[in-house]
Amino acid sequence: xxxxxxxxxxLLHAVGDRALTWLDAHRDYFRLTEADLARGDALVERLKxxxxxxxxxxxxxxxxxxGSRQGARAGALLDFAWRELLDGGxxxxxxxxxxxxxxxxxxxxxxxxxxxxxxxxxxxxLDIPRRxxxxxxxxxxxxxxxxxxxAERRMGLTPSGDFAxxxxxxxxxxxxxxxTVHLHIAYDITHTVFHLTNWGEDPGRLPPPLADYxxxxxxxWAADWAELQHWDLLGELLIVDACLPRPALDGQLWEQYATAxxxxxxxxxxxxxxxxxxxxxxDIVHHPTLVAAFASAMATSRSLSAGGA
Length: 309
Description:
Elements: H1 9-25, H2 34-37, H3 43-63, H4 68-85, H5 90-98, H6 104-114, H7 120-130, H8 133-137, H9 142-154, H10 163-168, H11 171-174, H12 183-196, H13 208-227, H14 231-242, H15 251-260, H16 278-305
Helix pairs in contact: 1-4, 1-16, 3-4, 3-6, 3-16, 5-6, 5-7, 6-9, 9-12, 12-14, 13-14, 14-16
C-alpha cells in the first residue's frame, strides 16, 4: 500500500487565512440591492452566497483552528451577514412569506439559529408549511433533500423525512460505476457528504459503505479534477477527504491547490484568475474562495488532531 504524504499544517492554515482576508476585504459585494430584493424567485441566487458565507464562517468557528485574528474576522463577517445583509433575518422572513414552500430560508436560517441568532416571525412562518403534506412532497434532487433534513435537524426540529431513505436515493448512496463522475455528479457527491456529516461536524454519520467507497475512488477523482485545474471542485473533494475515517488523498494535492490561489487570497474556479470588473470577478470566484477557507479549516484541524507537524 502506497504511503500518503501529508501537507504541512502551516500551508493548510495559510490557504484559509488568505481566503478569509480576501472575503473580508470584499464583503460589500455580498450585499443585496433593491433590485435584488424585488426579484422574487431570482432572489434565491443572490441569497445563496450569503448562506454559503454563513456556513463557512460557522464551520471555521466550530473547528477551533483559527487564530485570534481569524476568529475575530469570522465573527464580524457572521454578524455582518445577519445584521446588514439579511437585515436581522427580515430578508429571510419576507422571502418565506412570498415563497412559503421554498426551503431556502430554512437552510440559511439554520446556520444562524445554531449560533443563537433568532427571528420569531420567521420561525412561525416556517412552521406553517412544514405541517403540510406538500412540504414532504416537494420534488428536489436527493442530495438537496438531505440538506433540508439536515437544516431541520440543526434547528432542533423533527426532520420531515428519513435520512436513510434520502441517502439511498442519492448517486453516492447507490454507489454506481465510479467512472461516471462528471461535473454535476461530483458536486452531488460532495454535498451528500456535507449534509450527512453536517458540514464535517460529525464524520461518524457517514455510513461505512459510503466511506469505504469514497476511500477507494476519491484519489482518482481528485487527481482527474486537479489535472483539469478545476480548483472549486478539488477544494470540495479535499473537504470530503477530511470527513473520511482515514485520509485517502496525498498531501501533494494540497500543495498544487495552494499554488493555484491568487496572491490576493481569492481562488479561481478553474485555471487562472479571471479579469474584469471587480463585481463580476467576485461573482465568479467567491464560491471557490469560500471553499478554500472551509477546506483549510477542516484539513488543519484534522492535521493537528493527528499530530501533524
